[in-house]
Amino acid sequence: MKAAVLFEAKTPLQIEEVTVSKPGPREVLIRTVACGVCRSDLHYVDGAFPHPVPTVPGHEAAGIIEAVGSDVAHLKVGDHVITFFTVFCGSCEMCVTGRPSLCIDSSTRRPKDAEPRLSLADGTPLAPFLNLSAYAEMMLVHENACVAINKEMPLDRAALLGCAVITGAGAVFNDSRVRPGESVAVIGAGGIGLAAINAAKIAGAGTILAIDPVPEKRELALKLGATHAMDAMSETIVKDVLKLTGGGVHYAIEAVGRSNTAELAWNILRRGGTATILGMIAPGNSVSIPGPTFLTGKKIQGSLLGSTRFPIDMPRLVQMYLDGLLDLDTMVAERIALGQVNEALEKLRKGDSVRSVIIFA
Fold first, then answer.
1. Coil, strand or helix: which one is 247?
2. What is the distance between the alpha carbons of residues 289 and 254, in angstroms, rounded to a whole number?
3. How many CA atoms lie within 13 A of 173 on its CB side?
4. pLDDT: is 321 or 333 the higher one?
5. For the residues 241-261, what does the mean pLDDT come to?
6. Whole-angstrom Cα distance, residue 195 to residue 170?
7. 312-33-87-346 Cα dihedral, nearest 10 degrees
């Protein structure tokens, strides 16, 4: 099969012929139909986060099951599935307490002495990328790295649920538990931020602020449910938010991954408010919070994939789309071929596009 391979950080991906192994116990082979090009991939491609190479990036995908290994319990050939990179074992403390996105049990990976799931044509093993390696025509994954969905769901839209949407929507529904009439500010109107804005609208938030430096993204945010759009580069952004909301928002959701935007999320909260940090803040960076502000009862929390309970939440989000509540169509900026992946990554570097989705023939 063809796949986009990263041989070294800070170099373009190369389209290569790659060999995929046969499904082992509890593994499924998926024909990739669509894969979103996510900023998280860019962090690894550009070396901000280290990763073993060579590898096939990509982690926001949907496809159709082609084959199943032994002991697969809930999936069958022909199922339409959405993948997600935080594969869960189902039996560790995190899983049984309802936090599968935090599972790191090694039983979901192949043993070190086993044949690699992916390898180059010359036999060189490819390091697994976030348990998926989705910039490829096929994905070989553990059965708990995907969820079967309604076949009426368009797979190019379904792919976005695998990262951007479950992260942004999960931050609203699971981490914040927004109630009708409450106020929400979302910092960053990329794929994750737009999903959070749309989810806040679905949750019935009264005031929804979109904070982003790019005018086009602010316009998209308004289309997806924001009641106000504000320029993140404004020198008075904190004062403006506090004035508009009568003392700050109930919930601030950071979807950028920078120290200053995480600090902004804290500073625009009202007393007793909660900030949820979704962005990937690179190693070596830290967030500074003035000590006395903890006396206001404010809270700051991290989140991975919106604390999603995958088998439950993902089919529900699919139904929200089919019912016309969840707007995924607006989030897709373009549909591209695998060979255009480097151009899509460059657009992410410039920060002026929402989502490029790779469509596999």
1. coil
2. 15
3. 22
4. 321
5. 97
6. 9
7. -120
Q: How far is CA 357 from the centre of its chain?
A: 13
pLDDT score for 355: 85
CA distance 128 to 236: 44
Confidence of residue 243 (pLDDT cuts 50, 70, 90): very high
Tokens 């200053």 map to which residue? Answer: 260
Backbone angles phi, psi at 33, to 5 degrees: -105, -40
Average pLDDT estimate for 239-248: 97
Would you state the pLDDT for residue 226?
98
Reported confidence tier of residue 353, pLDDT bands at 50, 70, 90: low
- Determine how many CB atoms are found less than 10 A away from the CB of residue 270: 19
For residues 274 and 176, the answer to whether their CB atoms sit within 8 Å is yes
Task: Give me the half-sphere count of Cα atoms (radius 13 Å) on the Cβ side of residue 206.
Answer: 10
DSSP conformation class of 108: G
Instruction: Give me the amino acid identity at 203.
Output: A
- According to DSSP, the residues that pair with 210 across neighbouring strands are 186, 229
352, 216 Cβ separation under 8 angstroms: yes
pLDDT at 119 over 70: yes
Q: Tell me whether the omega of the peptide bond preceding residue 54 falls within 30 degrees of 0, making it cis.
A: yes
Which of 36, 40, 57, 7 has its CA nearest to residue 282?
A: 40
Strand pairing class (2-5; 183-187): unpaired
- Tokens at 263, concatenated: 């600090």
Work out the angle at residue 20's Cα, subtended by the Cα atoms of residues 127 and 129, and round it to the nearest 5 degrees.
25
Output the pTM of the full model. Answer: 0.92
Residue 163 neighbours by CB under 8 Å, 6+ apart: 36, 38, 40, 59, 60, 84, 85, 191, 192, 305
Mean pLDDT score of the chain: 95
Under 8 Å between Cβ of 140 and 118? yes
In sequence order, what are the residues at sequence separation of 6 or more whose Cβ sits closer than 8 angstroms to the Cβ of residue 312? none
End-to-end CA distance of the chain: 12
Q: List Cα–Cα distances, 251 to 12, 290, 326, in angstroms.
A: 38, 19, 20
CB 132 within 8 A of CB 145: yes
> pLDDT of 46-74, one tens digit each?
999 999 999 999 999 999 999 999 999 99
Of residues 82, 145, 124, the one with CA closest to residue 315: 82
